[in-house]
Amino acid sequence: MKALLEKKINFREKFHSIRTAILLSYFLIAMISLLVFAFVASHYTEKTVLENAEEYSSQLISQVNNDIDSYMGYLRNTAVLISSNSDVHDFLFGTDDYDENNDLKERIVAQFETIMDTRDDIVNIGIIGENGKYILNQGYYRLNENVDLENVDWIQRARSNYGTIQISSSHVQNVVDGRYEWVVTLSRGLENQYTKESEGVFFVDLNYSAISELCDSISLGSRGYIYIVDSEGNLIYHPQQQLLYSGLKSERIEEVLNTTETSFVTGDGKLYCVSRSSDTGWTVVGVAYTAELLKNSSETSKIYFISALFILLAALALGSYLSTAITRPIKQLSDSMREVEKGNFERAKLEVRGENEISRLNTNFNLMTAEIKHLMDQNLEEQRQKRKSELMALQAQINPHFLYNTLDSIIWMAEWGKNKEVVTMTSSLAKLLRQSISNQNEMVRVEDEVEYTRSYLVIQKMRYKDKLEYDIVVEPKILDFRVAKLILQPLVENAIYHGIKYKEGKGKVLVEGFLRGSELILRITDNGIGMNEQRLAQIFEKRETDRKRNSVGVLNVHERIRLYYGKEYGLTFESVEGMGTKVEIHIPYMEAKTGETDGSEK
Prior knowledge:
The chain is built from 17 helices and 18 strands. It has helices at 2-15, 18-83, 86-93, 98-118, 153-160, 209-216, 241-245, 253-258, 290-293, 295-342, 357-415, 419-438, 446-464, 489-500, 533-537, 553-565, 589-594, and strands at residues 122-129, 134-136, 165-167, 171-173, 181-191, 198-206, 225-229, 235-237, 263-265, 270-276, 283-289, 443-445, 468-474, 482-484, 507-516, 519-526, 570-576, 580-588. By secondary structure, the chain is an alpha+beta fold. Helices cover 53% and strands 18% of the residues. Strands 1, 2, 3, 4, 5 and 6 form a six-stranded antiparallel beta sheet that branches. A five-stranded antiparallel beta sheet has the order 8-7-11-10-9. Strands 13-15-16-18-17 form a five-stranded mixed beta sheet.
């Protein structure tokens, strides 16, 4: 976390440096200028390309419209020619003579066959009279009996406007029995020369082959297409006609019919080019995708931006060189200040050159760092002495209380005449005092600390007789590790005096030592009266010394361990009222193993 914070601070300092400010300003000016140029050039190029594409596409669609007009004009002439044939009128409205009608029919069928043989785009051709006479295609086709001719839209329109050629929208032709194809029907009403009424119709059904060829001959990109609608918005031709009728695709037909422009671009990136025919009333619509039309424009824009990027990099390199030359003396001073922050005063010394403002600043900086180093050394020595005195005071605080409690026990046994027990306890006390006083080291082996605690428990076992049992279980591999002096015994004493002493029945103290992960754990467990949550929460609160009960022992040990090893170590308590207490001493494994801990350095 500390390293991450330092990196973050370094980044902020670097970002706010004078060199970075100069370089960033230079970079921003160059970048903004180049981006504006590239954007304007790209936008102008794209606009020009799109305008040219619109004009070119509109010309293509207009050409398609003219071709369709020529095609439909030819078919109109054919329709006029056939519908004006006297044989057609004589067959439908003339004599009922069978032989004569057969002759007329053969001549008409021959004409139909000639037309159909030379034109692949004609699906059906025929004449239908109101009187029930008709000829379809090669003469043997029949009318669909299930179709009411009076309700067929294109027939009624042709009869109502028999003087002109009528062109239907695309539809499925169902008049001819057995033929159901999508067609466009050209029809013309036939006038009975006797009654002067429209009593028949001539029609030609066209498939989409010719129209499709005309539309497909024009390229509007890989995805572009052409479709045709009539003046009422009915679809005449579309390359994806089935999708439109099934609702899977839609077109902007209403927008196309209402526009007064020859082209327009929609929000979804489509270019619509519109050309209307005065002959057919159809509107030819070309649909192109602007992304395809602007493909070359996009490549040109990429070239603009790539060129701008290279120019920007060159400008950045030049700006870096100039900013470095300008800010190098200031950076050296900044680096020296960082060395001072780290405590490297010798490496922070600056070389003074010249007589300018930076040189005078460097001289003053050298004087200042020398004075700071002197003051820091002086303060460090004072702190080291102070902490050493605190450790000695804390350690001395334990010994008198233990001595008082032990002497109380000896006096009690002497009063009862237990001389043998007095000798044993006095001998054990002397051994404890000898171990404590003779070893002036602040760090002792775990084995020595355990033996010291064992001697204490021997004394307490004699004092409490059958009321106290104890056990010591320590892993052999940690016996040579070194820990702070006098950390076990005060906690054992605390367990006896505050837990077991007030318990009904026999009490037991268990002392354990083992490794857990990166920590050395010393654990003291008792089955005494335990503590409630409130008492447990107040375990480390400072209070006045109780000379009879060593109430300072827990806080003393906790503070010393934290002073030696750091605030993340020390004591942890678990306790259940009426069941007992467990306290663990947490010590860093590596420092205990090497024995290099020095409390004065923490």
